[in-house]
Structures are given as C-alpha cells and as structure tokens.
Amino acid sequence: xxxxxxxxxxxxxxxxxxxxxxxxxxxxxxxxxxxxxxxxxxxxxxxxxxxxxxxxxxxxxxxxxxxxxxxxxxxxxxxxxxxxxxxxxxxxxxxxxxxxxxxxxxxxxxxxxxxxxxxxxxxxxxxxxxxxxxxxxxxxxxxxxxxxxxxxxxxxxxxxxxxxxxxxxxxxxxxxxxxxxxxxxxxxxxxxxxxxxxxxxxxxxxxxxxxxxxxxxxxxxxxxxxxxxxxxxxxxxxxxxxxxxxxxxxxxxxxxxxxxxxxxxxxxxxxxxxxxxxxxxxxxxxxxxxxxxxxxxxxxxxxxxxxxxxxxxxxxxxxxxxxxxxxxxxxxxxxxxxxxxxxxxxxxxxxxxxxxxxxxxxxxxxxxxxxxxxxxxxxxxxxxxxxxxxxxxxxxxxxxxxxxxxxxxxxxxxxxxxxxxxxxxxxxxxxxxxxxxxxxxxxxxxxxxxxxxxxxxxxxxxxxxxxxxxxxxx
Length: 474
Description:
Residues 454-474 are annotated as: Disordered. The chain is an alpha/beta fold.
C-alpha cells in the first residue's frame, strides 16, 4: 500500500474529526492497520493532531475548508471576517472556498445526495435545507465536542458557556446538539418611532386599541398594516404564532407536539378572529398580496404603512433604503382579552442556524470555524456591522447602534423569561408551508376560519401518521 494512500486516508480522517479508534478501524478495513498505526504514533507529537487550547478540535491546519452562507438580511460581511481575520490567522495554509447565496436547498441538496456537502453552512432563508430531515437522516455532525471545547476568547469558559441561556435549545434533536443558532432574534411588530411621536400616538397594548388606531390611520389616508403576501410565513410566525402563545401557551405547545385537534382549539379560533379583522376592515396596504418581503418593507419605509411584522434582521436588510430620522423600533403583538402571557411577552431566541454536515471533508474545520464565529470578537463584529445581537454573551456590551438595536434589547429586558419560539415550522416543513398558505387565503378572504383549521389540522394529522417523518416533542 502506497505512502500516498496512507497519507490521504490519514488526512481525510482527521479532517472529518475521526478519533484514533475510528482511524484504526478504517485502516483495518483497508488493510493499513500497521502503517496507519505507525502514522498515528508519529502524529502524536505533530501539529495536525494537537488538541490543546490552541487547537482543541484537532483541526488539520492545511485542510481545505468549504463555507456556504445564506446571504440575506444580515448580509455576509461577518462571515468573511471569520474567513479572513480569524480562521486564516490560525490556519494560514488552509484554502477556504466561500459562497454567499440564497435558496440553499435547491443549490446544496445535490451536494448532499452526492456525498460532497460543504463543511459549514448557514442554513437560513426561504428555500433552505430541511434541518429536521437532515437530522433524521444522520447528515448533521454532533456538535457536542464543540460545545465542550474552550472558548476562543473568553478565558475559563467552554464554548457553550459563552452562549445566551436557552438560545441553542432549538438545535437539539434527540438529545444531540446538531445545529447552532447565531443571531439573537426578536420578532414582532415594527414601526417608526418618529412617525408615532409626531402624531401623538402610542403603540397599542391591546388588540382593541390596535383596531381603534388602525381605523384612525386608515381614515387619515395611510395603511395601518403592511406585510408580504408572497411570504405569508411572516404574518403566520411573527403575529399569529406569537399571539396564540400569549393567548394560551399550551395551545401552541400542542400544535408543536402534533396533538389531536390542536389546530381546532378555541384559542386558535379566537386569535384568527382577531387577525381576520385586518383583512375584513381593509387595514392592509392595498396590493399587499403580491408584495415580497423587500417590496413590503420598502413600502413601509416610504410611509405607506405603519405596522410591519418582521425580525431583528430588518434594519440591516434595508440599510440602503432607510430614510433619515426614521427610527424603527420593535414591539410585542398586542394583547387579546384573556391572554395568559403579559403584553411584554415576545418571540425571541436563537436564529440563523448553522450546521456542519457529517459527510463534509473537513468536519473538524467546520466546527472550528463556528468556534471562531461564536466568539466575542465575532459577535462584536456582527453587532457593529448589522446592528443586531448575536447569541454570544457580552459581545454587544457598550454599543449604541440606534433605535432598532436599543428597542430589541429593551424588549428582551421587559420580557424577562416570557420569551418563546414555535417549533412546528422547523420540525415539519410541509406542515409549516400548509399553515402559511392557509393563513394567506384566510386573510385575503378566500377561506373561513373553520376551513383554515380543518386544512391545517389535516396536514398535522398527515404528518403525525407518516412513519417516515421523525417526530419531536416539547
């Protein structure tokens, strides 16, 4: 057996994060046990396998790294910073292949099928890969060793200990940490503080107050609400889901858990009755049905609508279109009578999920890239460049980055422990897609509340009864 083949197997195994035992097992299968054992012995004192504070994950310093990022609302400058100023500093001999793209599913699925996925992926945005399906198929590397590794720049703490409490819960599948959430995301209702103050308005804390103000706004010639009809997951996830959780937390837990008739619960109907008023009373901007998210946000920035459902990526996504002195801020959804969660409760948690494919050629390098991104240095660069918070504790301290950034921190402080994120859309993509299309039909007057509930419950039951779909529980 040639030395070249031994070296190739050795380097590929190290890049994939294999243990010494796994390397020996692979060598036995290939008839290389003696020479590979010798190679392992020789490597014990060498840099490529060193696993100390400088290289706790055992990265091969010369192994190529393939990075793919969703280039959406947060852009990708923060990822390029890791490539150029962090990873290359530690591993100058590593060649990094990089791409910032959108609609990751259609572009990357063929690479997973062929067994040649990237080493690290920001799997976000419309048309992304199905994380739950990848987890069920064993396509995602276990990140437990990364969570236990020393932090890059917080002395005395592990990587996991530097992350905001609760921010990584949605990345756990069957007890394993399979994805890492990067952005500390808050979703809710956005408005221009300047506009509201100039008119003497205050943000409505109840739905009745919201309907009253919306009527007044409409009478003045401005649309009370604007949202995207092309991507109805915005109104579904940022308004309906949040209102349902605040109205009856158990109702949305039952939905996540695929409980029988969960979508037919009285709480669901009560929230939908409130939302339907937006359509029935023509409180949406005319033509909203055909607007994508960028178009609807531009209409909002031009003052054609007052309230916009979105998340904390909004300011960075629209940074080139924001008028001077607009002063955007975020607020929770208004309360309904009988809500079990206070008005200040808001949807917040980790977003912008990163994954390391288990079949990547440099699994250890993919994990190391994440260790560097999720550092105070990486988090501060992200905050300064996007005006958004990361999950890295302390990375945004002392920064004054405007009203959007400030209102996000204020909302989190006011909410305290009253934060939540629904899971059904992430766990079960087809169910989430059905719910978003049905809520669009409902708000456009094309279906009734009863028809909405029946259609989405049918999709939920089909998901529950499909043995090929892995099920999850809250």
